Amino acid sequence: MGLPILKLNLVPPPSPWRRHHMVLGRGAVVIGLLSVLAVGGLTWRAQHQAQQAGRQAVMLAGQARDFAKQETKLISELREIDVEKEAPRWKLAERILTERSVPWTRITSELERCLSQDVRLKSIQRTRGNDRQVEIKIKGEAKAREAEVAFMAALQKNPFFAQVVLEREAERQGGGIDFDYTLIASNTPPAYVPLPMYGPAKREAHVKAPAPPARGSVPPTPPTSGRRP
Known about the structure:
alpha+beta; 4-stranded antiparallel β-sheet; 47% helix
């Protein structure tokens, strides 16, 4: 009787590594290269940012030194200023700035806005009072009392003028009134409003009705054209 045949397989079964070791090895190499590149890029970026921060720090330090020098120079110049000697110039500059805040164009526009019919201005003078307010002295004339009253009422209603003072008033020979006003400009004048396109309307003259014809007279015949019916 012969010996039985035994089938034995001593080779272990293939593992996933053995089956795909080429693909897995190449993938690991690619991942390693990508990691090295990423680390290199992040390192370069960090170094670049550090260099920029260093340059900015140097620039800021230089600016701080320059500002410190300018401050020291300004303090030394302020210490050398003679206040008593420069005070008149400062007061003059302050007066000029205050007067420029009320320009002539605005003054004339507001006076034109308040003018009424039969009123004429002869002189305008801008001064500065003791309380540092701009005063406007005007001289004018009016043909009638009603015209002057209308002019004064318009000045008092105008918010550009804080106060209206009547300095002098006298009747003229031949009719009319001469007047002197002192107008005090407001410290906070309102915004400018453009003047109207047309001035105040003139007073209409009274037209007399024609007198009736006398008794017994023949009324005039209306003109006729040269054409005959």
